[in-house]
């Protein structure tokens, strides 16, 4: 989640945190501008420099406070976080509001960019009136704690989300799936009122900064007007939607065959709790049910990892080796000393994985409750992608220590993970060479990827479409849950296992909602990672089917990739994209080409079916 606009480091919460006054350095940069005279470019330049100093000085306090909280949730760390979050929000609001004064001033491109970045540096702004930032911080830290300390009573034990997530991947008893799903979704109703109040405060803050609402502010972070960006997202979804419909149709038929009409009817939406994932956002765990009939079995990554007796640490080392094989430096010793790679048993933590850069230089870390399975193998590659990006842009000025946009930050590690092919697994000794699946298994290999990558897109879209509606007032608190399911149905074609209770607040049962991490970044990342991958394989001269390509060990590709990462946020994102891929547009074409052989297969399988819902 790392890649918050301008919050170069930590996790979600930090998004709303800011920096404390503890930063001894620069006085408030507002002193650089007088109230009456039209500001000059020189003043803008001075303002930006002072702001960068102030932000840089305080960010370490912010990051270490958030790290302390997320790796040890208790009364005191929550208190400290609230304090720092309040001060940080106040600081950023002050800096953003001061930056607004340069709106009409002609500025050199670099100063203009930094002024604009300053205006967008908050995920949740607060109004400047006394007490608003503190109230916001109290709500957001409370929501975060509530989510991360949530437990359900299941089979006679108190169970946390990380265990539930794993079990939902393998459990096939529909009653038990429904129980796990329903109980987890009962943790969020107490969040609903606070969430509604938070929306009110943050919207007021956004309006003070000249935005219509928070959603519009989020959409303004992509080097183009918000409305254009929203249209861009629709265009990208339009490219992939036909693929999703075919996958949905196939998955529904297979689930119907497996469970029977009483659990999964042949037509209409798919039941949300039987897709192998708490939020139905990734269906890869259903591979045993989805394997093409008569198709060759491939291999089970979880089994390979377990058989090799990997531990959380050695699994992280395997991921690190991918990056170093491409010429990137080893992780620093402090990464290994200070990261949290397993769930501690003696305290509450935020288990949702994240990557951190605590001092904006070398103190990079991962926080993940690693379990030895395929999903966590993917996730540790994902998290290290954040860390390698942070390290690559370390020498940029403070405001540029960020991704080209937040989707870039999310795409780095996923791009690397696309290179985990059978050939690669054999190369590193996890898969025996004679077990490398033949070309006849390509449909299965692609199916597995599609269940992860294509199934995800309409979920990601739903997450932020819901929030855009909430922030712009189309969805009122009374409509929170109904509108959530309307979008889930419309985009994903899924439905809850049973009618939802009147007080349900189902969006709150997904990490990024109570933690206020914008989710469009993941949608964009899933498109971008295929563009990176196709470009990398082209650079490597790969001629076989795209999904069999791995650039493991390729230092030239690594150097070109790192050159894009080093740019950080210093240029508009199309420049960064062009530097590595040669194109300036986000485009679903690479993803379409990757999956084309599977699409023909799905269309054939779905022939005669009434697809859609
Ligand atoms: O939140 C994450 C990462 C941290 S940035 C683990 N992801 C999204 C999610 O879990 O919902 C990665 C995939 C989508
Ligand atoms: Zn991430």
Tell me briefly what this model is.
With 613 residues, the chain is mainly alpha-helical.
Description of the structure:
By secondary structure, the protein is mostly helical. It folds into two domains: 13-147, no CATH class; 151-186 and 211-296 and 402-613, Neurolysin, domain 3. The chain is 54% helix and 3% strand. It is built from 22 helices and six strands. It has helices spanning 41-70, 75-99, 109-119, 132-148, 161-170, 174-184, 192-208, 214-219, 226-259, 287-290, 301-307, 312-325, 333-338, 374-392, 406-418, 422-427, 442-471, 480-492, 520-539, 555-566, 573-581, 589-605, and strands at residues 151-154, 157-160, 270-271, 354-357, 364-367, 494-495. A two-stranded antiparallel sheet has the order 1-2. Strands 3-6 form a two-stranded parallel ribbon. Strands 4-5 form a two-stranded antiparallel ribbon. Strand 4 (354-357) and strand 5 (364-367) form a beta hairpin. The longest helix is centred in the middle third of the chain and has 34 residues, at 226-259. Mean pLDDT is 94; it is low at 1-34. The chain binds L-captopril and zinc ion. L-captopril binds next to helix 14.
Biggest sheet: strand arrangement: 1-2
Helix vs. strand class: mainly alpha
Shape: globular
If helices are DSSP runs of H or I spanning 4 or more residues, what is the number of helices?
A: 22
> Helicity level, as a percent range?
40-55%
Number of discrete domains: 2
Could you tell me the CATH topology label of the largest domain: Neurolysin, domain 3
């Amino acid at each position: 989640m790392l890649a918050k606009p301008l919050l170069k480091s930590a996790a979600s919460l930090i998004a709303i945190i800011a920096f404390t006054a503890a930063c001894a350095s620069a006085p408030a940069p507002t002193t650089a501008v007088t109230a009456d005279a039209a500001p000059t470019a020189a003043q803008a330049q001075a303002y930006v420099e002072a702001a960068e100093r102030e932000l840089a000085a305080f960010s370490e306090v912010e990051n270490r406070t958030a790290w302390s909280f997320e790796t040890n949730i208790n009364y005191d760390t929550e208190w400290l976080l609230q304090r720092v979050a309040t001060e940080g929000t106040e600081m950023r609001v002050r800096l953003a509001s001061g930056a607004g004064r340069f709106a009409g001033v002609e500025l050199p491109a670099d100063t203009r960019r930094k002024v604009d970045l300053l205006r967008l540096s908050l995920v949740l702004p607060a109004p400047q009136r006394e007490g608003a930032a503190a109230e916001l911080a109290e709500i957001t830290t409370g929501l975060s704690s509530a989510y991360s300390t949530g437990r359900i009573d299941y089979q006679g034990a108190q169970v946390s989300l990380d265990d539930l997530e794993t079990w939902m991947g393998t459990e096939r008893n529909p009653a038990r799936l429904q129980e796990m799903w329903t109980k987890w979704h009962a943790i969020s109703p107490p969040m609903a009122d606070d969430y509604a109040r938070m929306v009110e405060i943050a919207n007021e803050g956004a309006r003070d900064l000249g935005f219509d609402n928070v959603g519009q502010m989020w959409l303004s972070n992509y080097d183009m007007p918000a409305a254009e960006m929203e249209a861009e997202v629709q265009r990208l979804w339009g490219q992939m939607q036909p693929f999703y419909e075919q996958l949905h149709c196939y998955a529904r038929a297979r689930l119907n065959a497996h469970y029977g009409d009483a659990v999964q009817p042949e037509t209409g939406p798919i039941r949300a709790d039987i897709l192998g994932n708490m939020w139905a956002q990734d269906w890869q765990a259903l591979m045993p049910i989805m394997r093409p009939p008569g198709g060759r079995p491939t291999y089970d990554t979880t089994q390979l990892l377990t058989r090799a007796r990997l531990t959380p640490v050695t699994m992280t080392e395997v991921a690190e080796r991918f990056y170093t094989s491409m010429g990137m430096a080893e992780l620093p010793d402090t990464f290994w000393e200070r990261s949290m790679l397993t769930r501690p048993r003696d305290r509450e933590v935020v288990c949702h994985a994240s990557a951190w850069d605590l001092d904006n230089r070398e103190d990079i870390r991962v926080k993940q409750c690693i379990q030895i399975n395929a999903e966590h193998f993917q996730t540790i590659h994902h998290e290290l992608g954040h860390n390698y990006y942070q390290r690559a842009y370390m020498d940029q000025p403070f405001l540029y220590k960020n991704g080209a946009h937040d989707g870039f930050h999310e795409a780095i590690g996923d791009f690397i993970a696309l290179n985990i092919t059978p050939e690669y697994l054999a190369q590193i000794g996890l898969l025996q060479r004679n077990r490398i699946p033949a070309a006849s298994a390509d449909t299965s290999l692609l199916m597995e990827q599609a269940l992860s990558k294509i199934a995800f897109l309409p979920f990601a879209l739903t997450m932020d479409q819901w929030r855009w509606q909430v922030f712009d007032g189309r969805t009122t608190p009374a409509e929170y849950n109904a509108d959530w399911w309307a979008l889930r149905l419309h985009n994903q074609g899924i439905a809850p296992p049973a009618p939802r209770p009147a007080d349900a607040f189902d969006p709150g049962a997904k990490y990024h909602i109570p933690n206020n991490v914008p989710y469009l970044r993941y949608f964009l990342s899933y498109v971008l990672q295929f563009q990176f991958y196709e470009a990398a394989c082209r650079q490597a001269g790969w001629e076989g089917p795209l999904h069999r390509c791995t650039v493991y060990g390729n230092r030239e590709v690594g150097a070109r990739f790192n050159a894009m990462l080093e740019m950080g946020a210093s240029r508009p994102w199309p420049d960064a994209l062009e530097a590595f891929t040669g194109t300036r547009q986000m485009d679903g074409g690479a993803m379409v080409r990757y999956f084309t052989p599977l699409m023909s297969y799905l269309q054939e399988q779905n022939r005669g079916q009434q697809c859609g819902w």
